[in-house]
Amino acid sequence: MKCGLLGRKLGHSYSPQIHSYLGDYSYDLFEKEPEEVGDFVKNGDYSAMNVTIPYKKDVIPFLDALSPAAQKMGSVNTIVRRPDGTLFGHNTDYFGFTSLVKRSGIPVGGKKVLVLGSGGTSNTAVKALTDLGAQVVIISRSGENNYENLHLHADASVIVNTTPVGMYPKTGVSPVDLNRFPRLEGVLDVIYNPARTQLLLDAEAMGLPHENGLWMLVAQAKEAAEYFTGTKLSDNLIETVHRKLSVQMQNIVLIGMPGCGKSTIGALLAKKLERPMVDADAEIEALAGKSIPEIFAEDGEAVFRNWETQVLGALGQQSGLVIATGGGCVTQMRNYPLLHQNGSIVWLQRDIQMLPTDGRPLSLANDLGVMYTKRKPLYEAFADFSTDNNGTPEATVSAILAHLEGAK
């Protein structure tokens, strides 16, 4: 059975990986220009396929029948070639978004929900939320309700972002200031790269329930796989695939005192997981064109910290890396969202008497016990979890992997 994804630019799609967990069929990427779409839909070599932007509406004239969901949404993201050769169109985004809302636990029934954006995903969200009993208001750049009159909607209970604001690579920006909504009860963002957009980081800082769009992506793929194969799949598969994908996509960020073993553990983790390992200090030296001791001696610590933030910002945007940071990166709180946006942050702990000082300017110039006392609360604030690194490196790596694989 030959399946795949139809779109224009698909280089960064996670769909093949997701579908590899969902069924025994091939799944290819079909990149087509607009003028090629009609012929491919009618005559292409496929049994069934998904459709992504910008073709979810364009494919409809070439189909023989639509499901009620596709008719309701006015767009198609799943096409099945039936045994008689006719083409059937369905939309699984509705199921995906509804599943995301339920997964989040955020109550929407009877609540005022602001949906940011007016595109295709907004249309999906609005229909699903309305069916769930929400009072939906669409916020767009030029509509009746827009970003200039948000004060009219300060009573909103839930915000759903369907715009690309905050998506990789333009991270670190948010479409709205959550402080303007004192009655807010939860935030959803359909973006899944980075895992935590600035909007979600702000929600997290306010203690609000929040969820990104990865669950929606997996859930809609699960329903598409059912149409591909004609076989009902357990909803438990969504949780399984979501967890696997989350672990694979996130960076593993190692923090801790200078000399605690971040580079050694990072290299072993990278080898074990077959993913790139990046040493932030080495990246700083490459960017500055001089060694870290030279940066401290010639330019001072403040300049070094600026270089460090620049490097961590670039690394933190990426996915699937193992990142070994410098021991003092936690002294700059501005580094936390850069590392947290797409990473699981691991604090490596090692006894102070085991920490080397050679080639480490701050370690040589300061009492390590005093330094640790000052930095301990900072490591605790940054870390998602901590791991002892006083034993063998292999034991430390095993402990980290066990924690990551067990985390939801």
Describe this structure as you would to a colleague.
The longest helix has 16 residues, at 214-229. This protein has 408 residues and is α/β, with parallel strands linked by helices. Helix 5 (120-131) links the parallel strand 7 and strand 8. Helix 4 (93-104) packs across helix 5 (120-131) and helix 9 (262-273) packs across helix 16. The radius of gyration is 24 Å and the shape is globular. It has 3 domains: 2-91 and 217-241, Leucine Dehydrogenase, chain A, domain 1 (Rossmann fold, 3-Layer(aba) Sandwich), CATH 3.40.50.10860; 106-208, Rossmann fold (3-Layer(aba) Sandwich), CATH 3.40.50.720; 250-406, 3-Layer(aba) Sandwich (Rossmann fold). The protein has helices at 15-20, 34-43, 68-73, 93-104, 120-131, 198-205, 214-229, 236-249, 262-273, 280-288, 292-298, 301-316, 335-340, 361-365, 368-382, 393-406; strands spanning 2-7, 26-31, 48-51, 65-66, 78-81, 87-90, 112-116, 135-139, 158-161, 186-189, 210-211, 251-255, 277-279, 322-324, 343-349, 385-388. The protein contains 16 helices and 16 strands. The strands form 3 sheets. The chain has a 6-stranded mixed sheet with strand order 2-1-3-5-6-4.
